């Protein structure tokens, strides 16, 4: 058996895949509809949308088999993402790379495989739309083109999911995306009895930036601020733009001391950005920090409400201090 090689852009490819928050999510009718269509068009028993993670392939949609994931080392899709065209094995028994593959000699007894790479907007290959059969078969050029067309539709659906949950300007999750991802993270921390904190942030004096320097400069300030938020995030953290100039940061498995260190680092980044700012304005913000307490907080809405309140208290204190000078 031949273990699939890793793409040359493997590290950045994995970053892109995981940033989309598709792995280990619920079934989605948009993708199931396409795999059902593939079953009908190609008259095969199994069709899948496969996402190739670091050590596994996970199926966002699976029709015709009771599969959720397999090891990447035995995956056919691991080979398919190495190329740019359809990857087809018409008879695995006649191919020394796959003849002794566990998925060939055991369930689901793959004899035929055809997969077309699925790419994201940045060109990174996420996985494949693929077909399986327990019998060998010929796969014509016409069928390869149809498989390519269906794979392109899968790509468009993935992009549509992201556009619905990602803020177009800052390219971080919007309010919908934040609730979707943060609720999962909060539930996980509750089940495992891990600490979790939320930081609610609001830009100070943002309207004067737009009024004095124009909306393009205001957009630049928002993008700069969100970029710094992303830089302080670990892989498990979630930063989002939840309103016009309002942002939220969920920090799973983070205690009070860790939050203080993260915010100190963030403050340093903001100060450096202001020193390098050629125009006569400064990026400033107020924030409120909430540490999840199951006795006080039932859900993410409770954390956001308290974080918002604490943020405004801090903002008002700052205004009073400035006016008293």
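^ Assign residues to that structure.
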């Amino acid at each position: 058996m031949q273990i699939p090689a890793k793409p040359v852009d493997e590290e950045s490819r994995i970053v892109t895949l995981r940033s989309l928050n598709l792995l280990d999510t619920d079934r989605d009718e948009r993708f199931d509809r396409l795999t059902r269509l593939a079953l009908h068009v190609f008259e095969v028993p199994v069709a899948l949308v496969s996402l190739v993670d670091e050590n596994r392939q996970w199926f966002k949609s699976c029709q015709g088999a009771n599969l959720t994931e397999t090891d990447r080392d035995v995956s056919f899709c691991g080979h398919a993402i190495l190329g740019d065209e359809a990857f087809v094995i018409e008879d695995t028994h006649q191919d020394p790379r796959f003849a002794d593959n566990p998925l060939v000699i055991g369930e689901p007894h793959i004899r035929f495989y055809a997969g077309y790479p699925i790419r994201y907007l940045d060109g990174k290959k996420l996985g494949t739309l693929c077909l399986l059969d327990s019998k060998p078969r010929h796969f014509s050029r016409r069928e390869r083109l149809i498989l390519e067309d269906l794979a392109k539709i899968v790509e468009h659906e993935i992009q549509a999911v992201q556009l619905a949950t990602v803020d177009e300007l800052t390219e971080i999750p919007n309010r919908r995306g934040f609730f979707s991802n943060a609720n999962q993270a909060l539930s996980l921390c509750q089940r495992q009895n891990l600490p979790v904190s939320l930081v609610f942030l609001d830009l100070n004096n943002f309207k004067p930036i737009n009024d004095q320097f124009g909306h393009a400069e205001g957009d630049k300030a928002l993008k700069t601020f969100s970029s710094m938020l992303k830089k302080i995030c670990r892989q498990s953290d979630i930063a989002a733009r939840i309103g016009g100039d309002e942002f939220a940061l969920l920090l799973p498995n983070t205690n009070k001391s860790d939050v203080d260190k993260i915010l100190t680092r963030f403050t340093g980044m903001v100060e450096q950005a202001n020193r390098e700012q050629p125009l006569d304005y400064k990026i400033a913000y107020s924030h409120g920090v909430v540490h999840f307490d199951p006795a006080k907080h039932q859900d993410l809405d409770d954390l956001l409400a308290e974080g918002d309140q604490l943020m405004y208290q801090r903002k008002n204190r700052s205004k009073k201090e400035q006016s008293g000078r």
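The chain has a mean pLDDT of 93.
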